[in-house]
Each structure stands twice: as C-alpha cells, then as structure tokens.
Amino acid sequence: MVQFSGGCLCGSIRYQVDAEPKRIANCHCDDCRKATGSAFATNIFVDEAAVVVTQGAPKSFDHTADSGNTMTKQFCDNCGSQLFGFSSGGSGLKSVKVGSIDDASFVQPGLNLFLKHAAPFTQIDRSITCFDGMPE
C-alpha cells in the first residue's frame, strides 16, 4: 500500500492518502494546463475514500469537460494551490495533483493524455503509453 501526504503552498490544507494508485498520468488537456498554470498536470488517481483531508477545507470549482462530464477541481482558497480533482463520470476516483505531494519520489507516470493539446516545447516521454485524447 502506498502512503503519502501533502498540502497547499501556504500550509492551510493538509491531506493523507493510503492507497495504491489506479493510474498515474500526465494530462496535456487545455483544462489541466489552465488550471495548473503549467504545460501539463501530473495526476495520481486513487479511490476517493482514500484521500483524507487532515487540516483545512478545499474550495471547489465545477466546469464541463469536452466529454460532457462535470469536472470538479479542489484547491486552497487562500494560496490557490490545486490539490484534487474528480469527474461526474469518474467511478469513485479522485486525482491528486503530484505537485502538492510532500515527497513525490515514488511517482512514475504510465500515461500521457491529450497529446493533441500538448505545448510544442514540452518534452514527451514516448516510452510510456500515449494518447492524443482520452482513451475509451
């Protein structure tokens, strides 16, 4: 079982996770790029119940994805750090933003998603499974 903890930049929100990742993916979709302010987001998908907020309470923002699903982003309302995300079509999974993890040395992405939206300067690891969009 993988155990890790993390939090936001200002320290107002802290969390712990005790679960095997279902998948770890680099997502290059427009939504992830805009939400993170970076070239892509690296997300660890775990069972939603395995994510326990131990301090503070994240604020939520909902939007509609290209799939038509409602996407919820959870973040610190003080410093703006994005922490979690989930989808109305996500079957009980929650994504944890790798940048919020205290020690992410265990992280090994296995997928690249939405490469059709990747910034042209981004170095893509072609040794892992790559998709132009979201796989079926």
What's the overall average pLDDT, rounded?
Answer: 94
> What number of structural domains do the residues give?
1
Kindly report how far apart the N and C termini lie.
28 Å
Total number of beta strands: 11
Fraction in beta strands: 35-45%
Number of helices: 1
- Main beta-sheet strand count, sense and barrel state: 8 strands, mixed
Question: Which second-level CATH architecture applies?
Answer: Beta Complex
Low-confidence stretches: none
Helix percent band: under 10%
Written overview of the protein:
The chain is mostly beta strands and 136 residues long. The protein has one domain: Beta Complex (Metal Binding Protein, Guanine Nucleotide Exchange Factor, Chain A), CATH 2.170.150. Helices cover 5% and strands 40% of the residues. The chain contains 1 helix and 11 strands; from the N terminus they run βββαββββββββ. The strands form 2 sheets. An 8-stranded mixed sheet has the order 6-7-8-9-4-3-10-11. Strands 1-2-5 form a 3-stranded antiparallel sheet, with no helix packed on it. β6 and β7 form a beta hairpin. The longest helix has 7 residues.
